[in-house]
Amino acid sequence: MIRVEGLSYSYGSSPKVLDNISCQLEQGHCIAVLGNNGAGKSTLLKCLNRVLVPQEGEVLIDGDDTNIMPRREMAKKIAYVPQRSIASHTMVFDAVLLGRKPYINWDVTEEDRRIVQRVLKQLNLSEYSTRYTSELSGGELQKVVLARALAQESDYLLLDEPTSNLDPHNKHNMLRLIQDISIEQNKTVIIVIHDLNLAVRYCDRFLFLKDSNIYRYGGCEIVTTQTIEDVYGMKVEILEHRENKIIVPC
Amino acid sequence: MKRIVIVIACILVLAVGLFSVASGSMDLTFREVVQTLFGKSTVQNELVVFGVRLPRIAASILVGAALAVCGAVMQCVLHNPLASASTLGVSQGAGFGAALGIVVFGGGVVSSGSANVAIEINNPYIVTFSAFVFGSLSTLVVLLLFRFKRNLGSGGLILAGVALSSLFTGGSTLLQYFADETQLGAVVFWTFGNLGSASWTEIAIIAVVFIAAFVYFMFNRWNYTAMCSGTETAKSLGVNTTTLMLVSMVIGSLTAAVSVAFVGIINFIGLVAPHMMRKFVGDDYRFLIPASAVAGGLLLLTADTFGRLIIAPVILPVGAITSFLGAPLFLWLLMRGDKIND
Ligand SMILES: Nc1ncnc2c1ncn2[C@@H]1O[C@H](COP(=O)(O)OP(=O)(O)OP(=O)(O)O)[C@@H](O)[C@H]1O
Ligand SMILES: [Mg+2]
Predict the structure, then answer these.
(1) CA of A236 vs chain B CAs: smallest distance (Å)
(2) Which ipTM value was assigned to this complex?
(3) Which of A153, B64, B265, B290 is least buried, going by the fewest C-beta atoms within 10 A?
């Protein structure tokens, strides 16, 4: 469980992007972080694993204060996929192997290689393993970055729009895979995703950010026309189709 | 594949090295060279090989390797493909420091050797220390700019390097006015880069510093590879990015400063060698660090051998040769432009 207490963050001297946020993100759930552009979703994710150091408040992971946790230990617990990934000039296999970095002492082990191979297979990337990441398409790169995060074998996954560049088929495949991993291995996934229909389909917790704070946090029942209008200022209609909610703007 | 590139480069270093031992004002056959190396030759041959040529070759390989690995690492931690000791002004700072050490603290004396003028440093520690202090000064300015002016971009950082370079080069020129004849000779030699001046003791010092830096860099090779995917990704993979950057830059400038203190300013090796090897091994620092080291050694050795032989018995300063080699490559990198505007 990740517990956030009184977390505030501001970039330099600009106004606070996150202001006194507190919440508990429970184990084994797939949590969608929602909010309009610039609401602070990416900032929140980065504060959770101290890619950004919050000015106030603390984040506890399984009861351990991230303030005093060595980065390496934290990397074993939390994997992170940034919103914008930089492609370095390395082969796909080596790029994914980097996910094993927190466990590597002097050199990689056979075990590490096996894990990487397994993850590449899971994401249908096996035939890419000797391609250079700098020569991949946007969606291919996104899959590689996701593969790296999965290779980290952490209990928590922070994913910042991990499917924004994927085609519809890949998008559903990836999200289904993430959902399966979360259910089968009791992992906690915290995912920023703009598509509300995908969010209600694959996530079971929803965290709406508004005005530098949490507007609402809860299960599928809080995704209502009212919440969406309040957060995005957009009128929508919610339809039911085979027990799935479908959100359409009206 | 990546290992093969390193092995081939190593073989080339050996080949050029052997050729370099054999050639010079007194040509030796390969047979004689081998005999001398195993201590079965004339005293004269031994003097030429062990006293003159081998130290020079050892210095070329070591300094080339040192500058190249420092360049590779600086390019990574500053996220700047144009970073290197000479483009950031570290070498020029160190050169000024060395000159100051020679002129003000009375470090250097010119003594006439056989064909070339050899410069001995009376007190190598003062000159080295002074070189390191001023090399670090450049590093400090670069780091402060990098830390507090995030929107500087990679071009801005290099412009700062240009400014620092001209500042220190100007400083060195001014010092020459206050120098007496012998000191002047020493200072001028410094600004050109001269591999003939290194004695075995100095080579040993460079070797120790280089090996220490190399081990530290290799120890962090995974961290550097992670840094290539961006600071945020590196942090999330457990890299202490700030510490890594600071320590790497300090070690890099120390190593560069020591090289400069003993053999003078040598441009472009630190920039060109890593980029050459990136073509083959990519941003994978497991291979890039050793590959850059070998390539740097090879480049500088080749450049120096060339400079020794092209219009023998006149020996061209190696710094001029590397600039000749490096400047076009540098321009080509700028022209290609893909990785430079990040
Ligand atoms: N490095 C930065 N320096 C200064 N301000 C920043 C920086 N990064 C983000 N901001 C500002 O902080 C606010 C929140 O940014 P954040 O990236 O967290 O938004 P977001 O919710 O992820 O938006 P999006 O949906 O567009 O990804 C924005 O107003 C943004 O302009
Ligand atoms: Mg964002």
Answers:
(1) 36
(2) 0.90
(3) A153
